[in-house]
């Protein structure tokens, strides 16, 4: 028994070391964004001037508003299209269903570098070109499979008899969906929507290839800034991003338990 | 019930189509057509829209095979992928095991969430945060010099190890996630049964637990290896001048050299490599799902 | 209310004939049971009548109106599902109100109709509860109230009592029957439980492999089964196989078994006779003379199973095991190995043509 307890104790210690590995850089970056020295010199002296100077940076502000705008539209489109597709997969049997479901895999599994460059070539070729619209096109496509997977997982817990019962009581397809099915899958739809927002808001690679100097998103702007040299402003804006995206995922976890239904 | 399944099949596609069409049309325009277009463009001499005359050619692919540089870089990227994947297994599997079999109840849920949370947060920013830690005069340097009695100079930044550290940090949560899911599915009584038969902990691990968690390990490995081979932002930020890999060369073709047909060919070769890997692992992945 | 006529209904799922030329007339206000083993097509038939699935050929009429191409939501039927299918996101009252509300009824009408339906199923006080706060029996009642509140033309029940335990099931059988009589609705009830079918219904239809095997009042099917399958699926029966003699059959060993008068089969054809175990009297073989106008067989008791109010004897005779059920009257019990005489009246013997 003694060995068991020691092993358990070691296990816990190990997990905390892993968490330290995962979070320490982020915490340090956040701390540095409040440090007076622009060259990250210690000792640490508290300041919020880097955050204040963010407000003066028009480029960053416009990129941020682009990012939010695209993420919001992506969320709305993905939840609508994704929920509809999930319902179709849930309700109907047809030839080629397995194939269509398998097609959701490539957007998730193929490296964004490939997808991004392919989009760039294609959008250029057909005249869509680069810019915010192209970025939106790409983001929706990248986030859609996640929404379908999440909503479908929720639908697995839904009993088909409920739809049949509603129909036997005289409800038409729309009434069935709105009053019986949607209320049940709502947690999944919300989680899917938050996923879509996070995928879009954090997306860098695809946005990078599809952006133009005037029409860009926050992560692309940050990448450009990093390559020019590290500045405390980047720390500040990065800290804001990471806080926002982690908060979003915590919110998502309230609705969708990763690796299993609540 | 078989009858239910058959019920829908008659009018199934007709009813399903209006619901599926918007989503799949979108995926077609933004994913499937672009991927097909890439094949097309990769066999051209010039972009058709550039105004210059163009023709079909295999030259872009010939370039890949004739210039040692590209092959070398692809091999370097594959090696990077292997190394990062290996580290993720070494670090992630024990963590998944502790989460699934040692921790219990609410603390398990909370810590699990904490482990996978970074994975869903901004990857670019997380890579950037390592720059703060690894650079000369950075936190690691300062902290070690404050503790150690002698002066050392930590400058891991802009090196191969820095790239590996950043990528492992980025992808290890994935391995924890997939391994945790398969480990959790292993019945505790199975382990107790093995122990009651006289197997030691190590024997149980080697002969029961690891074979049973193979689907999770393979799934995690595939899902890490593939994006790492195609990474370019991480080597650029953390690798500096040493950070030239296959991904960064592709990036260059599109944003610096503007040789899109060559970039497309290089991308397509990478896609082929990726597809082969996914095809090799897909039987295991399907079992995991 | 309305009767339901099903005529020549067929439905194939690929090569599988789920329904094969089925015709039944469900009279207005009657209580019908569709009985059969799983895969017999009884659920398929119910779903066809409901409108969840459409036939390949044949006709379904509700109240004289052809509905076989009308989708479920416009058929004005009420259905109770095996697992009740109560909407988990709605209260009991909202569940019951659903059918009226999707029809756009006025709020006041809905409220009073819902209250009336809940009164009928004796759940007036539970309108505010959620389905998960109810017991199995209560859920069953809510499902029933929800199905009848819209005043459907026909009530369809898909093994509605299957999920309940035995004692509750008997209560619900009585309750269901009471409510059905009170509102006088044509009711079609799918079950695989023969006892449920016998006790509850006015008429029973037995299905097998997508075909209607026999249809009629419970007594008629039990007393005069038309096939070996009907005889053995509804109740228990001893089956003797042989050749017809005109008044009965002759077994391969030459023994004659006399059957009830009425059935006429060509002499010499293959046929069987069915006898219910409770119709056979069993007695110790004392070597006494055979009764002239009865069927008599000799056999040996191999086993006795005691079930309180009765006992079942297993009697071996010429390689066949016969079952005899004897009421517990306190008379002497027979032991295994005992040589016995089995006697029964030709009136209790049904002649069945071989299929």
Automatic annotation (TrEMBL), chain A:
Q: What is its main location?
A: membrane
Please name the GO terms of the biological process aspect recorded for this protein, alphabetically.
Answer: transmembrane transport
Keywords associated with the record: Cell membrane, Membrane, Transmembrane, Transmembrane helix, Transport
The places in or outside the cell where this protein is found are: Cell membrane
Family membership: Belongs to the binding-protein-dependent transport system permease family. CysTW subfamily.
Q: What is this protein called?
A: Peptide ABC transporter permease
GO cellular component terms given for this protein? plasma membrane
UniProtKB/TrEMBL annotation, chain B:
GO terms for CC? plasma membrane
Q: Which GO terms describe its biological process?
A: transmembrane transport
Name of a matching Pfam family: BPD_transp_1
Residue ranges of every copy of the ABC transmembrane type-1 domain listed in the record? 74-281
Main location as per UniProt: membrane
Sorted keywords for this record are: Cell membrane, Membrane, Transmembrane, Transmembrane helix, Transport
Tell me yes or no: is 4Fe-4S among this UniProt entry's keywords: no
Family recorded in the similarity comment: Belongs to the binding-protein-dependent transport system permease family. CysTW subfamily.
- What name does UniProt use for this protein? Peptide ABC transporter permease
- Organism, scientific name: Mesorhizobium wenxiniae
UniProtKB/TrEMBL annotation, chain C:
Q: Which part of the chain is the ABC transporter domain?
A: 4-234
Against PROSITE patterns, the record matches this protein to: ABC_TRANSPORTER_1, ABC_TRANSPORTER_2
* A biological process term (GO) from this entry: putrescine transport
Q: Does the keyword Nucleotide-binding apply?
A: yes
Documented EC number(s): 7.6.2.11
What are the alphabetically sorted keywords of the record? ATP-binding, Cell membrane, Membrane, Nucleotide-binding, Translocase, Transport
The question of whether Phosphoprotein is a record keyword is answered with no
| InterPro entries for this protein | AAA+_ATPase, ABC_SmlMolc_Importer, ABC_transporter-like_ATP-bd, ABC_transporter-like_CS, Mo/tungstate-bd_C_term_dom, P-loop_NTPase, PotA-like, Transp-assoc_OB_typ2
Chain segments annotated as transmembrane: none
Q: Please give the GO cellular component terms listed in this UniProt entry.
A: ATP-binding cassette (ABC) transporter complex
A Pfam family it matches: ABC_tran
Question: What catalytic activity does the UniProt entry give for this protein?
Answer: ATP + H2O + polyamine-[polyamine-binding protein]Side 1 = ADP + phosphate + polyamineSide 2 + [polyamine-binding protein]Side 1
* SUPFAM superfamilies tied to this protein: MOP-like, P-loop containing nucleoside triphosphate hydrolases
Enzyme class, top EC level, equals translocase
The Swiss-Prot or TrEMBL record annotates one GO molecular function as: ATP hydrolysis activity
Subunit (UniProt): The complex is composed of two ATP-binding proteins (PotA), two transmembrane proteins (PotB and PotC) and a solute-binding protein (PotD).
Q: What does this protein do?
A: Part of the ABC transporter complex PotABCD involved in spermidine/putrescine import. Responsible for energy coupling to the transport system.
Annotated PANTHER family: SPERMIDINE/PUTRESCINE IMPORT ATP-BINDING PROTEIN POTA, SPERMIDINE_PUTRESCINE IMPORT ATP-BINDING PROTEIN POTA
Assigned protein family: Belongs to the ABC transporter superfamily. Spermidine/putrescine importer (TC 3.A.1.11.1) family.
Under which name does UniProt file this protein? Spermidine/putrescine import ATP-binding protein PotA
Protein encoded by which gene: potA
């Amino acid at each position: 028994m003694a060995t068991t307890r020691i092993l358990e104790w070691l296990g816990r210690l190990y997990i905390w070391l892993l968490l330290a590995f995962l979070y320490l850089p982020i915490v340090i970056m956040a701390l540095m964004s409040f440090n007076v020295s622009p060259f990250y010199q210690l000792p640490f002296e508290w300041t919020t001037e880097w955050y204040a100077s963010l407000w003066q940076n028009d480029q960053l502000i416009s990129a941020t508003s682009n990012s939010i705008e695209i993420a919001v539209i992506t969320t709305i489109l993905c939840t609508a299209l994704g929920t509809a597709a999930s319902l179709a997969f849930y309700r109907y049997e047809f030839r080629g269903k397995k194939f269509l479901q398998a097609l959701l895999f490539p957007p998730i599994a193929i490296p964004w570098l490939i997808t991004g460059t392919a989009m760039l070539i294609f959008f250029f070729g057909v005249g869509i070109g680069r810019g915010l619209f192209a970025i939106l096109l790409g983001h929706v496509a990248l986030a859609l499979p996640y929404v379908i997977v999440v909503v479908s997982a929720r639908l697995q817990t839904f009993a088909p008899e409920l739809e049949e019962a509603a129909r036997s009581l005289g409800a038409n397809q729309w009434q069935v969906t709105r009053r019986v099915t949607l209320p049940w899958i709502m947690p999944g739809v919300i989680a899917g929507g938050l996923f879509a927002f996070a995928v879009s808001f954090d997306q860098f690679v695809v946005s990078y290839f599809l952006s133009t100097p005037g029409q860009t998103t926050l992560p692309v702007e940050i990448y450009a800034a990093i390559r020019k040299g590290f500045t405390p402003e980047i720390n500040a804006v990065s800290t804001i991003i990471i806080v926002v995206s982690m908060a979003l995922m915590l919110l998502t976890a309230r609705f969708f338990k990763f690796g299993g239904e609540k | 019930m078989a009858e239910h399944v058959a019920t829908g099949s008659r009018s199934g596609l007709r009813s399903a189509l209006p619901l599926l069409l918007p989503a799949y049309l979108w995926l077609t325009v933004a994913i499937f057509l672009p991927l097909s277009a890439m094949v097309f463009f990769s066999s051209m001499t010039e972009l058709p829209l550039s105004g210059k005359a163009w023709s079909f050619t295999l030259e872009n692919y010939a370039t890949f095979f004739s210039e040692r540089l590209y092959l070398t870089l692809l091999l370097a990227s594959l090696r990077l992928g292997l190394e990062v994947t290996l580290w993720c297994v070494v670090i992630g599997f024990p963590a998944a095991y502790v989460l699934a079999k040692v921790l219990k109840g609410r603390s398990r849920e909370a810590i699990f969430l904490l482990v996978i949370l970074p994975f869903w947060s901004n990857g670019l920013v997380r890579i950037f945060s390592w720059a703060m830690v690894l650079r000369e005069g950075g936190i690691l340097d300062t902290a070690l010099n404050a503790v150690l009695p002698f002066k050392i100079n930590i400058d891991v930044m802009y090196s191969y190890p820095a790239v590996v550290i950043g990528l492992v940090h980025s992808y290890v949560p994935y391995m924890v996630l997939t391994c945790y899911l398969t480990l959790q599915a292993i019945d505790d009584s199975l382990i107790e049964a093995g122990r009651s038969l006289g197997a030691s902990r190590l024997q149980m691990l080697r002969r029961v637990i690891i074979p049973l968690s193979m689907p999770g390990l393979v799934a995690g490995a595939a899902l890490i290896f593939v994006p790492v081979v195609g990474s370019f932002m991480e080597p650029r930020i953390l690798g500096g001048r040493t950070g030239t890999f296959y991904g960064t060369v592709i990036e260059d073709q599109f944003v610096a050299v503007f040789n899109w047909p060559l970039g497309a060919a290089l991308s397509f070769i990478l896609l082929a490599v990726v597809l082969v890997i996914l095809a090799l692992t897909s039987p295991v992945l399907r079992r995991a799902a | 209310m309305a009767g339901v006529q099903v005529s020549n209904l067929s439905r194939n799922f690929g090569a599988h004939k789920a329904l094969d030329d089925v015709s039944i007339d469900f009279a207005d206000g009657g209580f019908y049971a569709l009985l059969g083993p799983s895969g017999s097509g009884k659920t398929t038939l119910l779903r066809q009548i409901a409108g969840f699935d459409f036939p390949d050929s044949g006709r379904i009429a509700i109240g004289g109106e052809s509905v076989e191409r009308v989708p479920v939501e416009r058929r004005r039927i009420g259905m109770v599902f095996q697992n009740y299918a109560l909407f988990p996101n709605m209260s009991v009252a909202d569940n019951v109100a659903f059918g009226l509300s999707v029809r756009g009824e006025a709020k006041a009408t809905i409220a009073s109709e819902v209250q009336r339906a809940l009164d009928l199923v004796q759940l007036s006080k539970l309108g505010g509860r959620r389905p998960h706060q109810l017991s199995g029996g209560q859920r069953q009642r809510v499902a029933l109230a929800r199905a009848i509140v819209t005043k459907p033309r026909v009530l369809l029940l898909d093994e509605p009592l299957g999920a309940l335990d035995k004692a509750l099931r008997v209560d619900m059988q009585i309750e269901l029957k009471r409510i059905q009589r009170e509102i006088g609705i044509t009711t079609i009830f799918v079950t695989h439980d023969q006892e449920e079918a016998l006790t509850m219904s006015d008429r029973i239809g037995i299905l097998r492999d997508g075909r209607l095997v026999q249809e009629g009042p419970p007594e008629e099917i039990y007393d005069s089964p038309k096939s070996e399958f009907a005889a053995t699926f509804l109740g228990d029966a001893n089956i003797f196989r042989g050749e017809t003699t005109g008044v009965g059959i002759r077994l391969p060993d030459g023994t004659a078994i006399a059957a009830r008068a009425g059935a006429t089969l060509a002499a010499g054809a293959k046929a069987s006779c069915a006898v219910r175990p409770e119709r056979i009297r069993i007695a110790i073989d004392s070597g006494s003379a055979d009764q002239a106008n009865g069927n008599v067989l000799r056999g040996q008791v191999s086993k006795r199973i005691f079930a309180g109010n009765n006992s079942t004897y297993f009697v071996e005779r010429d390689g066949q095991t016969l079952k005899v059920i004897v009421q517990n009257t306190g008379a002497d019990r027979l032991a295994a190995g005992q040589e016995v005489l089995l006697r029964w009246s030709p009136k209790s013997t049904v002649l069945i043509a071989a299929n």
